[in-house]
Amino acid sequence: MKKTISAFFIMVVVSLFGFQSFAQQGQFRGIVKYALTWEGEVPQGAPTSFEMKVYDNKTTYDDMFAGCKVITNAENKTTYSMFDFSQVPVEGVTGKWYIKSKLEDKDFANITYEPTSETKEIAGRKVKKVNVTMKSDDGKEEKEVIWVSEDFGPTMDLRSYPGLKAMAFEFPVDLQKFKVTFKVSEIIEGKVKEADLLLPVGFEEVTAEEFKEIINILVELNKGASDDI
To answer: What's the rounded Cα separation, in Å, for the pair 168 and 146?
Structure first.
């Protein structure tokens, strides 16, 4: 009888330990899909979905606003923004470029995250309401409400909400003439390999200043073409 109880107890402990390991941040591997809801002057061809691959503390996705592929690593607070201009036939522009940046405390010193006790369920997970206050250098404040999971995904957000130690499950992006709300619609476990989160070969590193010069070449070229019309 004692042996039976001991075996049952061990099974329970192992099951609970396994569940807790899965629930911890930085230990999910899979795909997180978001549904997009647009308001205002919606851009033509605006996408209705977005997905992010997650591998422990790393993520990768296509940034539709910046026009680049992104890889983030919450463990070392590093982000890679990749731009493929290999098909642009312009001297000084043609190529595959990436900008490497590291999140510093100063980068989110003017952002305040205020967790509340209000919760709800999104995609089968309990999420918490967080009030966000962003203060610009001139003292102006912007406020947002987001819903986050504190036990899922990477241990820190590096890009959408720098310094947030949670994963945003519902959040707005307000760009003057239109607004889009991202909301997790589906979570798919597996189907992601660590290789999916590695920097692809063929990309050359440039600084933010050097990349700005590359963009300036395109801007001037486009300006000249407009003047000729």
So the answer is: 7
Per the CB < 8 A criterion, the answer to whether 147 and 131 are in contact is: no
State which residues form the domain around 185: 26-217
Mean pLDDT score, 113-132: 98
Residue bearing tokens 């590359």: 214
CB atoms within 10 A of CB 65: 8
Q: Is beta strand 96-102 parallel, antiparallel or unpaired with respect to 204-205?
A: parallel
**Alpha carbon distances (Å) from 43 to 16, 47, 64, 79, 195:** 48, 9, 12, 27, 34
Sheet containing 58-63: order of strands: 111-122, 125-135, 141-149, 167-175, 178-189, 29-40, 49-55, 58-63, 68-73, 78-84, 96-102, 204-205
Nearest to 167 by CA among 47, 11, 39, 27: 27
Q: Please, which pLDDT band fits residue 50 given cuts at 50, 70 and 90?
A: very high
> How much is the CA Rg of the chain, to the nearest whole Å?
22
Q: Report the relative pairing of strands 29-40 and 178-189 from DSSP bridges.
A: antiparallel
Residues in the chain: 229
Number of domains in the chain: 1
CATH code (residue 64): 2.50.20
Cite the beta strand spans of 4-77 per DSSP E. Answer: 29-40, 49-55, 58-63, 68-73
3-state secondary structure (DSSP) of residue 109 = coil
Q: Say what the pTM is.
A: 0.84
pLDDT digits (tens, 9 = 90+) for 4-13: 444 433 333 3
